[in-house]
Design brief:
Structural class: mainly beta
Number of helices: 0
Order of helices and strands: EEEEEEEEEEE
Distance between the termini: 37 Å
Helix content: under 10%
Largest sheet: 7 strands, mixed
Radius of gyration: 13 Å
Shape: globular
Length: about 120
């Protein structure tokens, strides 16, 4: 199983980034997918999730209205479009796969290695 996240980098406040996570080694469209982030010195927190079909999404209040999660089951890839970025969005962003409907971090079955997003002027 592999979850390879990419697209992180340095961006100025107010800017945008698009993260991608390419999955392999499991049946991608059987799994809900999430983006989880970990800021320096803080615990991991759920940012956004999408159901196996893409029909349902969930966002943390801190990113609602600025981030959009999507998936392409034909490409085994999940995306996170991040707009109006703030310094407090600085974190390592991980993608994770869940077999089932729980959004709990403890219930996520597979994790990628993460990609660093730094929001700074």
């Amino acid at each position: 199983v592999q979850l390879q996240a990419s697209g992180g980098g340095l961006v100025q406040p107010g800017g945008s980034l698009r993260l991608s996570c390419a999955a392999s080694g499991f049946t991608f469209d059987d799994y809900a997918m999430s983006w989880v982030r970990q800021a320096p010195g803080k615990e991991r927190e759920f940012a956004a999730g999408i159901s196996w079909s893409g029909g349902s999404t969930l966002y943390a209040d801190s990113v609602k209205g600025r981030f959009t999660i999507s998936r392409d089951n034909a490409k085994n890839t999940v995306y996170l479009q991040m707009n109006s970025l703030k310094p407090e969005d600085t974190a390592v962003y991980y993608c994770a796969a869940t077999y089932g409907s729980s959004w709990s971090l403890d219930g996520m079955n597979y994790w990628g290695k993460g990609t660093l997003v730094t929001v700074s002027s």
